[in-house]
Amino acid sequence: MSFPMSKSTIIRLAWLPLCLLLVACHTDMYDQPRYSANQPSDFFEDGRSMRPPPPNTVAMGTFDPNSAMFSGRLEGDLVAELPMELTAELLAHGQTRYNAFCAPCHGLTGAGNGVAAYRGGMQVPTLHDERLRTAPIGYYFDVITNGVNRMYSYAHRIPPEDRWAIAAYTRALQLSQYTVAEALHAEELAELP
Asked: Which domain holds residue 179?
């Protein structure tokens, strides 16, 4: 059964492919104004067309989740040395992170007498215990990352660089309580009470 088509219907249907063809001819998407790599630009204040990458950007193919920086281990063993440069800024940053995340339980001096330990009725280990003083620095990174006993993981709360800063500051806290006097210089000995 076929439907008879009027002349006006045939004309309208003949225009349809032409309209679709004309709509598809727009070249706006192909001929957009753009900058080539490293081309100067008047749009941004620094005069560059390429924007600097956001902080903590990792280039594709360079991230190694098993590196000492992100795992605290090297070939399965806990690292004994800090995988970043130890600076006064790193220790100061580690102190602020320690005070925010660790001091509520471990206390400001690492003695295990923080507010949560006091009010929560839990036994928090002192960071000045012989076992913890002799532990490799990677141990602290591992504990912050994975948690231990009643301490939960801080991996999603503290970035890896901050975890290393906390580990370095923890080591500084330990040294502040257990440095052998013979290891100090004369100027440092003079400052002692």
From this structure: 86-191
